[in-house]
Inverse folding.
């Protein structure tokens, strides 16, 4: 037991590693503030385009969404960061992560929001149009607010996954929390910094998990 504690819960090593772990946490928070809005923006664009009646828009859109949902985000990120320079496009690690998350998480957010839009009764759209609202105004003021409310637990759940997924940015040497924890591990030859990073992730995300559970329970109660 003592050997286990020394290898995984060495508080002295955690304390010594804390400065770079906090630096990693700041980078993770900044990264989340970047990629979550980007993913939501991409999702809104895809969801709205999916409502267009033109098959020549919807079919390429379906291929786009399926492609970026099927591609592992880690593979996508490596391809963007390491592959684009061969095309003459040199980009930073932050830019590579932003593009990768925009493509991947935008596809997931888009499917969630598309389901939300489809859940809004058609009669409300027709009523809004009869009052003189344009299609864009109807989507903005009538459909999207209700769509977001209808799929809010799914949006929060996906956002939770996106924040956890930011740890893959370590493969392109972006100094987020996991990258810094691995750096500390390589110096100390001890897994305690990785455990400390896991504890930080838990403290950061546990309130969101509880909020998600509360929203899901409210939705279940409303359906009864």
């Amino acid at each position: 037991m003592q050997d286990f504690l020394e290898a995984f819960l060495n508080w002295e090593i955690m304390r010594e590693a804390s400065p770079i772990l906090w630096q990693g946490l700041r980078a993770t928070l900044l990264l989340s503030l970047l990629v979550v809005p980007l993913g939501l923006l991409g999702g809104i664009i895809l969801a709205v385009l999916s409502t267009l009646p033109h098959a020549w828009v919807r079919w390429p859109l379906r291929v786009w969404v399926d492609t970026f949902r099927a591609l592992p985000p880690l593979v996508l990120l490596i391809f963007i960061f390491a592959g684009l320079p061969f095309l003459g496009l040199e980009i930073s690690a932050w830019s590579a992560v932003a593009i990768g998350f925009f493509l991947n998480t935008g596809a997931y957010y888009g499917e969630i929001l598309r389901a939300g839009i489809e859940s809004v009764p058609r009669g409300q759209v027709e009523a809004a149009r009869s009052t003189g609202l344009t299609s864009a105004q109807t989507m903005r003021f009538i459909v999207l607010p209700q769509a977001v409310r209808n799929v809010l637990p799914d949006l929060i759940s996906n956002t939770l996954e996106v924040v956890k997924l930011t740890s893959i940015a370590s493969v392109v040497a972006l100094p987020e929390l996991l990258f810094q924890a691995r750096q500390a591990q390589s110096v100390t030859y001890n897994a305690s910094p990785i455990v400390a990073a896991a504890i930080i992730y838990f403290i950061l995300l546990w309130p969101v998990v509880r909020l998600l559970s509360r929203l899901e329970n409210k939705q279940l109660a409303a359906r009864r």
Remarks:
- The radius of gyration is 21 Å.
- Residues 197 and 203 are 10 Å apart (CA to CA).
- Residues 11-50 form the longest helix (40 residues).
